[in-house]
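Final report, closing paragraph on structural work. Over the funding period we assembled a curated collection of sequence-structure pairs, and we close with a single example.
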Amino acid sequence: MMMSTRLTVSLAAMLMLSCEERNPAYCRWHPTDVSCGADQGVPPMICTSDDQCTESAPICDMTNAMCVECTAGRSGACVGVAPVCGIGGGCRGCVSDAECASMTCLPDGACAEPVDVLFVSPDGSVASICMPAEKCSLPRAIALIDGTKSTIRLDPGAYDLDAPLALNVSMRIVGRDAVIDRDQRGTGPTLLIGEGASIALDFVSVEGGDGAGVGIGIGCTNSSLTARDVTVQGNAAHGISASGCTLSLLRTRVALNQGIGISATGGSLALTRSVVLGNTSGGVLITGAQFDLENDLVVRNGGAFSLFGGVLLTQIAPGSPHVFDFNTVANNLASPMMTPGVVCSVVGTPLALTNSIAFGNEAGLQVEGSNCSWSYSDIGPIPLSGTGNRSLDPQFVDPLHSDFHLRASSPLQGLADPAAMLSVDLDGDPRPLGSGPDMGADEIR
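Its predicted structure, as stored:
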């Protein structure tokens, strides 16, 4: 009798909530209410036991008499990239290390398995076992990587290196607010990825490579690098220099390096929702590599003596995937008589560059090169012919302070290809938000 009373009270309380609060139980019982739109999805089942629930929501929350994915007492039902039981009984991704038993929350919302993790702190011991109660140094953890331990979790802080840090076996390094820094101790790169290694970096900052021409932030040869939410900055040579590597960079910031921001020779480069900013010798150099550049800002790179400013595509051969879509290339510089925006040189296959902005890059031509065609892009102030191309002031918010989002008044709203397939922008905002997608990396909110 008491269970029946509680169920009646719970149902009554739910039915009293307005659908302005988008309560699914209310909408279930009021299907004709126009405020309960189609975007409500499938409403939760009313239940008194688990066996009344479906596979997608298998647990009966007895307090609210609803079928849910999880409850506080049964949070183990949440796994994979949605390991946390959130408010309302839905599984979600982690957003902080504290939500994971391993104290290691990954960028995709998954928690690293505790058995996989080695724990490191800036003052960790060179001889400890790398566990939460006995953290070790970064070199010590790298030495312990084996078939069972594959993830290194860095505490926040500065990890000052006396020599380049060699990563010769496959591993993942995760470190919110962790900085790996040469700290001006000798010359050479900060990180070196050895041949055949597959390296994942999450959240860390790589800084302090020292020495003209050799002070690279990350060097990579015939290996693989996946970087998510990583910063590579303040190095005396290239930010990232790769030869024959598979590079996958998501939400990565490559900034204020004295060489080129990213140099990829051979192999492949996937650069997505990333920022390449203020690199002295140019932004992105792709030589004979496959590439996929989407939703990126390449801005304020190059200088009076650099051979290019924003992007240089060279020695591109037929037969490989090549994508350049929804990028913003602006306010870059190059030496006199060189094109400061986007350059195609010795391109052996037709390249289609689409839905992008190449505007305000020094004086003169913004883009150049044969076998490269532009469409639905804003090229200017000197215009370029092509389907859907414009030559309009993009109206960046504050380019002087490196804010290259579009103002609400930008004339580029809705002018990208109506058939474009990207569903988000640089910031992860939905695309399109208006009648059609906006040109460049930013979708106006």
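The first strand starts at residue 59 and ends at 61. Residues 64 and 167 are 51 Å apart (CA to CA). We thank the funder for supporting this effort.
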